[in-house]
Design brief:
The protein is an alpha+beta fold and 470 residues long. Helix content is 31%, strand content 28%. It folds into four domains: 2-117, Rossmann fold (3-Layer(aba) Sandwich); 145-213, Dna Ligase, domain 1, CATH 3.30.1490; 219-348, ATP-grasp fold, B domain (D-amino Acid Aminotransferase, Chain A, domain 1); 362-469, Glycinamide Ribonucleotide Synthetase, Chain A, domain 4 (Alpha-Beta Complex). The chain has helices at residues 2-12, 31-41, 77-86, 97-101, 104-110, 124-127, 129-138, 152-165, 189-198, 272-291, 328-332, 340-348, 376-379, 390-394, 430-441, 459-469, and strands spanning 22-28, 46-53, 66-68, 91-94, 115-116, 146-149, 170-174, 183-186, 209-213, 224-233, 237-245, 248-250, 254-257, 262-265, 297-309, 312-321, 362-370, 386-388, 399-403, 406-409, 412-415, 419-427, 445-446, 451-452. A hairpin with a 3-residue loop joins β12 (248-250) and β13 (254-257).
C-alpha cells in the first residue's frame, strides 16, 4: 500500500505533501551525472540519489545520501532495472548515450519504472548518424550535405574526387557512438584519407561513416557553434537553455576533438530571432519522430552551427543528442530554480512540461583533464597521480566543482581518467563568470605537471562584452 501511494502521488499530485524523500536514480558516471545528482538532491521530495555507475565525488555538495555503483556499467540493463525495482526508485534519469542505445528506457518502462529519456527507437537520432541525416533529409531540416559509406575504400575514392573537384574541407564522422570523439576535421585530401582510416579505431561505431561538408561562413572563416537543450513530453517541447561548447583540445579551437574542454552559457550570439528558429527545428524533429511512431520523451539536444550568409546568421544541425551534453549540463542545470523531479515527472506523465525558472546568471565551465587526453595510451600514465587544490577551488566564491575521473581515497584526490573534473564559475556576465572559474582552477595541479586545461573558454562572449564597453 505504501508503494502504491508513492507512485500515485508522483504521477498525479506533484507538489503535495503525500510524498517526500523519494529515491531518484541517475544513469551516468561523469561530470554531467554529478550535476544531475546535485540538482535532484535539491528537491524537497528527494531523500536519496542512486548513480550508475557514479563517481567518487558525486556526493559532494548534495547534503543528502548518494549511493554509487562503480561495478555496474550504464549498459548493464538487467542489473539497473533490478536494483531500481528493489529500491522502489521513483524516477530514473537516463543521461548516458550508450544506455539509450541498448534500450534501458524501454526495459525500465516495461518493468513499470518511470524513466526520463527516449526509447531506443526515438534515441536513434543520436546513436545512428546515418539515420539522423536521412531523417533530416526527409523532414527538410537545415543540415550539411553528406555521403554515407560502409567501405573504407569507397570513402577514400570519394574524397579524392571531392577534393580534386573543389577542395572544400569536410568532416569525417563515425555513424555510431564514439564518446564525442568521432568527428574528425579534414582540410585536405590527406587529412580526409587519414580520418577515414581512423574510423577503424572506433570499432563497430566506425564501420559506417559519413563525409560531411565543413560548414563555414561565406568568407571562409569558421562558423560559430551552439548547443540548444529542450525537454519533451512526446508532444511539445520547452527550451531549457543554450550553451557554447569548446570541443577542441587547445585554445582557439585548435587540435583534436575531445568530449568537451569547456562551455559557456548563455551564448550571446543567439538573439530572440535565432532562438525562435532553433525552437522550430527541435519541435519539427519531435513531431517527425512522433509521426514515425517514436514519441520522444526526455532531454533533446541540438548541436548546431551558425553560418553567416547573405548578411544573416543561419542555424544548421551538426548533430542530435538524446540526453544532456557534457559539459553543457554543468553551465545550464545549476541555474535551475524549478524542482528537477517535478520537471522530469511532468514530461514522463505527458501532461505538458513544467516551465523552468532560472537564476539568470552566466556560467563558464573549464574541464581539467589529464595530460595526453584524449589519447588513452598517453593519458593512462597520469592515472594514480595526486591532484592538489580541489578543496581550495571548491571554497572559491561563485564556483562549483563537479567530479568525473577522480578517485578519492582518505580525503585525497587522484587522477583516474581523461576528463577529471569541471570547475564552474557563475556571475552577472561572462567576464565575471570566467574570472571566477580561472581563479579557482589556478589553485589546482597534478603531481608531475600533468594537468591540462584551455585558458580561453568563453572567449567569444568576453570579446563581445568588451567591444560593447568601448
Amino acid at each position: 500500500m505504501m508503494e502504491v501511494t508513492a507512485k500515485l502521488s508522483l504521477s498525479g499530485l506533484m507538489g503535495s505533501n503525500l510524498y517526500k524523500k523519494e529515491k531518484v536514480a541517475v544513469v551516468d558516471g561523469g561530470g554531467r551525472g554529478s550535476v544531475l545528482v546535485r540538482a535532484y538532491a535539491k528537491s524537497p521530495h528527494v531523500g536519496e540519489v542512486l548513480a550508475f555507475p557514479g563517481n567518487d565525488m558525486m556526493g559532494f555538495g548534495t547534503g543528502k545520501p548518494v549511493r554509487t555503483f562503480p561495478g555496474i556499467k550504464t549498459t548493464d540493463v538487467e542489473k539497473i532495472v533490478r536494483i531500481c525495482m528493489d529500491e522502489n526508485v521513483a524516477l530514473v534519469d537516463v543521461a548516458q548515450d550508450n544506455a539509450i542505445e541498448v534500450g534501458l528506457v524501454n526495459s525500465l518502462r516495461h518493468a513499470g519504472i518511470k524513466a526520463l529519456g527516449p526509447t531506443k527507437g526515438a534515441g536513434q537520432i543520436e546513436w545512428d548518424k546515418e539515420f539522423a541525416r536521412e531523417f533530416g533529409t526527409v523532414h527538410g531540416s537545415p543540415q550539411p550535405w553528406y555521403r554515407v559509406f560502409k567501405s573504407e575504400q569507397e570513402g577514400i575514392d570519394f574524397v579524392k574526387r571531392h577534393f580534386a573537384k573543389d577542395g572544400a574541407p569536410v568532416f569525417v564522422k563515425a555513424a555510431g557512438l564514439a564518446e564525442g570523439k568521432g568527428a574528425i576535421p579534414a582540410k585536405n585530401v590527406e587529412d580526409a584519407i587519414n580520418a577515414i582510416k581512423e574510423m577503424r579505431e572506433f570499432g563497430n561505431a566506425g564501420d559506417t561513416f559519413l563525409v560531411e561538408d565543413w560548414l563555414r561562413n561565406e568568407d571562409g572563416s569558421n562558423a560559430e557553434e551552439f548547443s540548444a537543450f529542450a525537454i519533451s513530453d512526446g508532444i511539445g517541447v520547452k527550451i531549457l537553455g543554450y550553451a557554447q561548447d569548446h570541443k577542441r583540445l587547445y585554445n582557439f579551437d585548435e587540435g583534436p576533438n575531445t568530449g568537451g574542454m569547456g562551455c559557456s552559457s548563455p551564448p550571446l550570439v543567439l538573439d530572440a530571432v535565432l532562438q525562435g528558429r532553433i525552437v522550430n527545428i527541435i519541435s519539427s524533429a519531435v513531431d517527425g519522430l512522433a509521426s514515425k511512431n517514436r514519441p520522444y520523451t526526455g532531454i533533446i539536444y541540438l548541436g548546431g552551427i551558425l553560418q553567416y550568409k547573405n548578411n544573416e546568421l543561419n542555424p544548421s544541425i551538426i548533430e542530435w543528442n538524446a540526453r544532456w551534453g557534457d559539459p553543457e549540463a554543468q553551465v545550464i542545470v545549476p541555474g535551475f530554480k524549478t524542482d528537477m523531479l517535478e520537471v522530469g515527472m511532468s514530461a514522463i506523465n505527458n501532461r505538458g512540461v513544467l516551465p523552468v525558472r532560472t537564476d539568470g546568471l552566466s556560467r563558464i565551465v573549464v574541464a581539467g583533464v589529464s595530460r595526453g587526453y584524449p589519447d588513452k595510451e598517453k593519458y593512462k600514465a597520469v592515472k594514480g597521480k595526486q591532484i592538489f587544490g580541489l578543496d581550495e577551488a571548491m571554497r572559491t566564491d561563485g564556483v562549483e566543482v563537479y567530479g568525473a575521473g577522480v578517485s578519492v581515497q582518505d580525503g585525497r584526490y587522484y587522477a583516474n581518467g581523461g576528463r577529471l573534473f569541471y570547475i564552474v564559475g557563475s556571475g552577472n556576465d561572462a567576464v565575471q563568470a570566467r574570472a571566477r572559474a580561472y581563479e579557482a582552477i589556478a589553485r589546482v595541479s597534478i603531481e608531475g605537471n600533468n594537468l591540462h586545461f584551455r585558458n580561453d573558454i568563453g572567449w567569444r562572449d568576453v570579446a563581445r562584452l568588451r567591444r560593447e564597453e568601448l
